UniProtKB/TrEMBL annotation:
InterPro entries according to UniProt: HPF1
Disordered: annotated span: 36-58, 79-98
Lineage: Eukaryota, Metazoa, Ecdysozoa, Arthropoda, Crustacea
Gene Ontology MF annotations: histone binding; poly-ADP-D-ribose binding
Location, primary (coarse class): nucleus
Subcellular location field: Chromosome; Nucleus
Family under the similarity heading: Belongs to the HPF1 family.
Record protein name field: Uncharacterized protein
Pfam families, alphabetized: HPF1
GO cellular component: chromosome; nucleus
Organism: Scylla paramamosain
GO biological processes: DNA damage response
Origin superkingdom: Eukaryota
Keyword entries, A-Z: Chromosome, Nucleus
Basic and acidic residues compositional bias, start-end: 44-54
Amino acid sequence: MAWEPHVNGLARVPVSHWNEAFEEAAKYISKRLYSEEDFEETDERAKRSKLGDEEHLDEEPVISEAVLREFNDSYQRIPIPLDSSSAPQSDCEQEDTEETEEEVAKGQDFLVQDSPEEARFSIEQKFLLEMPSDFFDLWECCSNINKEKPEEALLKAGLTLVGPYDVMTGKLKKIKERKVSHYVCHWRYYYDPPEFMTVIAGDKDEFHIGYYRDDPFHMPCFVASMSSVKQGQIKPLGENIFAGVCSYLTQRMKEENPFKKAPLLRLYKEIESFAKKKDYSLLAVTKNMKKRNKKVVAKTFHGAGIVVPVENDVGYRELPETYGNLKKMLQKVVDSKNEDEQIKNFDAIQEIITNVQFAFDEGDSGTGIELGLNLFTFGGEVFHKPLMHLLSVGYDLLERDPFIDILQR
């Protein structure tokens, strides 16, 4: 059976092949953690997992064999259908049945095994994404500010460390059913696309700060904020979490009176000082962010844009409608007075989806991701099924499987 080693995707391997899968995954993880030369010899998917964090590779701690073994064991998941009424298949049935596009979109949930002691491994096990060095460094910084409750170190600014930080606080131990769906949806807001991961929550307007990444096997491209003030809009704040927090504090200080501004300024200086010691840029826009902007093939409704591989003009083609016209068409569907009118108004959208299907067939997977994310950001339950199909197929073609798992949840 031909398959590629991919830790987060092990559950897609038939049960009868799990032992083989885990052995291969162990070799893959060992290469990824210990040897840069070996790492370069792995397949293209494995190569991508460390891109974007090269500046901090030398800072990674040495991982013991015992910890690595624990990490491998923790990824053994028990698959369960999302539809609890459907009976599980036998090993033979799983081997003989090929995965259709509908099955990819429907997906499975998974029971997570015991947590690894290493926080970075425990987070990746539950949230399906690897966290960058600045994520853990902010925790250290907040621990210096508030030793008892680091997650509340930024409360004076109305911010709380959440999401994957709750692995560090121990709050996630209270979850009774250890399903992947419970973890990947933890502190995920309604309009957060799979590419966005919330790590800090504000105290009003559903304001939250998180990491945005184009590929689940890359480190994040930048840190951004979202809120209900501009529903579904993603606003880049900087390349790392320190830049994101400092950008927020700078804006907050402009809005506060002198009495409330003083404690915010002290907090800003503490974070700024720590960031400088760790050599983190606090610029709102960096060279890497500008470089990434040049690779964006479509802006999308949320504004952050998408980056997909394009070679010899294959990988992306423009949608046949402008964003202005597309929004009018979508609004018309949402405003339909009855089902018959909704079906009639959806015909124009269906025509675009058909064009996107042709794009999929010809290798332009980015077009489907663009339309899928636009439907996601626009909102409306009527678009859930088509966007699930578009994004699941698009992510699958680009081998961005963790995004499919997050989307399904």
